[in-house]
TrEMBL record:
Keywords: Membrane, Transmembrane, Transmembrane helix. The keyword Transmembrane helix applies. The keyword Transmembrane helix applies. This is DUF3429 domain-containing protein. The chain crosses the membrane at residues 7-27, 47-68, 75-95, 132-148.
Amino acid sequence: MQAIPRSALWLGLAGLIPFFWGALTLLRPELGLWGAATFGPRFIGPYVQLFYGAVILSFMSGVLWGFATKASGRAATAGYILSVIPALWAFFMTGGGPTGAAVNLIVGFLGLLLLDWHFWQMGLAPKWWMHLRGLLTALVVLSFLPLVL
């Protein structure tokens, strides 16, 4: 297994900021009030976490699509079909209130990790991919805990 490239690691970790910012504004109401006054109510608490979570699942569909382009024949077709699942999951499963949407996003990110593993096992993702994706998935799930507990 190769080490995660530093730029990929830092960008992946930076991509966690909205998730943890949302969690922090839930845990610290005064920070939530400041964030709402400074950035607007859409950029605090569950609003930022849920919206950003749907964006990231959609982004990851694009990443998986890119991996599928490295395959051919039926494997490529299957890869393209699998790659759209995270975006569709985000679209259909993030309604119904913040707690239910957060639980569904957790399930979506865990399902995405399984898809990541599948593409990695097929040799379509970089050798370091699962180290990065496992770390980021664990941290995303952790960020949703204040919303679901």
